[in-house]
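[audit] Reproducing an earlier prediction to check determinism. Same input, same settings, fresh worker. If the tokens differ from the archived copy the diff job will pick it up downstream; this log only records the rerun itself.
[audit] input (155 residues):
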Amino acid sequence: TQRSAAAPGAVGDRQITIRFNATTHPNLPWRFIPEQPSVTLRLGEEGLAFYSATNRAETPVRGVSLYNVTPEKVGRYFHKIACFCFEEQTLNPGERADMPVTFWVDPKIAEDPNTRDVTTITLSYSFFRTMEDAQKAGAVANAGPHVGRGGARQN
């Protein structure tokens, strides 16, 4: 995918559907979902979608997301203007956060013989607990009487 400051504006009549997918690693106690299953846009038109995350733990938890776009061959034509990816997010117990992503699809996708047949792109985000937070949670859960004395076991 590419990073852009702004979309160029809709070009022509061709439309493309962007599907949204969300997964959460098992050690992250969050509910993470796309707020809409898909949007359909004209090529070059700016799109806005929201994902939401809710912390189901009784303590603050930090997570970070990674994303991918499929089919892989369209990645060069998918442009993100704003995204929550790669930024640590901290949610307090029971807290919910809305996470926007702004994007557009380059009209050149219609000219490329390898991608002109694509009518649907899937944008997937996967949330993981940050390494530091996971280590902290593992140390607290498994430490027993050794907490604070350097003997904590970590997962």
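[audit] rerun output stored. Observation attached for the diff report: The domain at 2-140 is CATH 2.60.370.10 (Ctag/Cox11 (Pfam 04442)).
[audit] end
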